[in-house]
Amino acid sequence: TYFPAISHPEGLPLRIQDANGKDWVFQFRFWPNNNSRMYVLEGVTSSFSQSNSKLVTGN
């Protein structure tokens, strides 16, 4: 699965379902950074991190 292309800095909402079937909504956006962009997922909370503590680099 890949992230969708976005052309506006405000981005778009992404609904993601975790391994337990719980839906989470994040804002996928970017910040201009010199000649490139820095992509971020806003709204990742400690509850998401704790309930998905088995996440590892590359997931």
Automatic annotation (TrEMBL):
Which keywords does UniProt give here?
DNA-binding, Nucleus, Transcription, Transcription regulation
Name its cellular compartments. Answer: Nucleus
List membrane-spanning regions.
Answer: none
Q: Any idea which GO molecular function terms this record carries?
A: DNA binding
Task: Give the record's GO CC terms.
Answer: nucleus
Asked whether the UniProt record includes Lyase among its keywords, one would answer no
Question: What is the first-listed, main subcellular location in coarse terms?
Answer: nucleus
- Give the protein's recorded name: TF-B3 domain-containing protein
Organism of this sequence: Nymphaea colorata
